[in-house]
Amino acid sequence: MSARLDWRSGPAGPLRGTVRVPGDKSVSHRALMLSALADGSTRIRGFLEGEDTRATAAVLAQLGVRIETPADGERVVHGVGLHGLRASVQALDCGNAGTGMRLLAGLLAGQAFDSTLVGDASLSKRPMRRVTDPLAAMGARIDTREGLPPLVVRGGQSLRGIRYELPVASAQVKSALLLAGLYAEGETEVVEPHPTRDYTERMLAAFGWPIVFEPGRAKLSGGHALHAVDVDVPADFSSAAFFLVAASIVPGSELRLSAVGLNPRRTGLLQALRLMGADIRVENERESGGEPVGDLLVRHAALHGAEFPESLVPDMIDEFPALFVAASVANGRSVIRGAAELRVKESDRLATMATGLRSLGAQIEETPDGAIIEGGALTGGTVESLTDHRIAMSFAVAGLVAGGAVRINECRHVATSFPGFMDLANGCGFALDVAD
Predict the structure, then answer these.
(1) In which domain, by residue range, is 282 found?
(2) Which residues form the Enolpyruvate transferase domain (predicted)?
(3) Residue 30 counted as an annotated binding residue
């Protein structure tokens, strides 16, 4: 992963075909963790073969969980039960996975042994206090480097359930507290200012743990058991997002995205694009492993600017880079507010997208918690992804409609969430290759 990798994305004709994007990263992480703590063996199908999820699997293996890979995209996890994890002599390397590190902090807070969670250079700069502080209120002891990784999780603590009101909506923090709550005495309740993704709640219920949840609130008590159940991971909506935007903005396009996860706490971009006039239909709706799934048919449409309700922000926090591209080529002004959390993702995504799109001729006024974007035409040029996978893929989409080629620097981290992105993209009409 250390070799530099730059891309060149060029103008393209209509995008056509059927695309199956990789499995949902959030579901893959959680499926590994819960099946590791369950009684019995779980088969996971549709598993995302990305760097992030493989890092979580490697961590669990270090903790004594046997995980088999019978085929690409499949895992068989032999659960060790709630109290069956074993201490690792070495540090547990989460790579670039913020989700992995934050959820594991909650899971490990209730163990009898000490653990050290480390990450790569990018993850080591990401703030962890918003998860370590509430865990400390439950009785956990987690040492940090002034709020940053590595995290040294001290074992042997008696955790107690708390009622915690999240100051900022975050599915990762909520999930970490719920996982710690499995080991806590009494009831753990998490209340959010805005509802976030409920993957953890749905999966805990599927694995047989008593839990009560509704949008914006989740509650469970310790002292129960998880029981193995097979998991079919839906296609990742965040990965589908790049194709939804691409087909919407490239004239003549028609793409079908199959078996995409449509968890309502994940699909804010769908509503945002429809506010802009996008032509996206949901077909063949069904349920898989407790998660709603459907096929998305997207056709080119003349997008117009929109003012996006702040209520959509938690449901599309990972899709904003793609939305920035759509807004930059739409007709008229788009206004994004309430998205300050974008400043503490893999990069400061507000600043990185604004800087990159300006270098391609877009008119963007960056604000503390969003941006004002005047749509127009994009030119070719060079942009920096700052090794942020979603930034890199978003600029690959921008290159499809730019006046010339767009060079995107530092794209190697795309493998963390979307292995095979280039081949899949070029298969439906992108003009994407490795830059010299």
Answers:
(1) 6-23+235-435
(2) 13-423
(3) yes
CA–CA gap between residue 426 and residue 436 (Å, rounded): 18
Whether 217 has a binding-site annotation, put simply, is no
Q: Are residues 161 and 212 in the same domain?
A: yes
Name the catalytic one among 93, 236, 318, 388. 318
Distance CA 386, CA 384 (A): 6
Q: Which of 15, 7, 13 is nearest to 405 (CA)?
A: 7
β-pair type (115-118, 381-384): unpaired
Assess whether 295 carries a catalytic annotation. no
Comparing C-alpha atoms, which of 53, 65, 24 is closest to residue 232?
Answer: 24
> For residue 93, what are the β-bridge partners?
118
| Annotated binding residue 172 | yes
Are 102 and 14 members of one domain?
no
CB half-sphere exposure, 26, CA atoms < 13 A: 24
Over its C-alpha atoms, the chain yields an Rg (Å, rounded) of 21
pTM of this structure: 0.82
Residues 274 and 344 in one domain: yes
Check whether 125 is labelled as a binding-site residue.
no
Domain total of the chain: 2
Assess whether 16 and 84 both reside in one domain: no
Cis preceding-peptide flag for 419 (omega within 30 of 0): no
pLDDT in tens, 55-77: 999 999 999 999 999 999 999 99
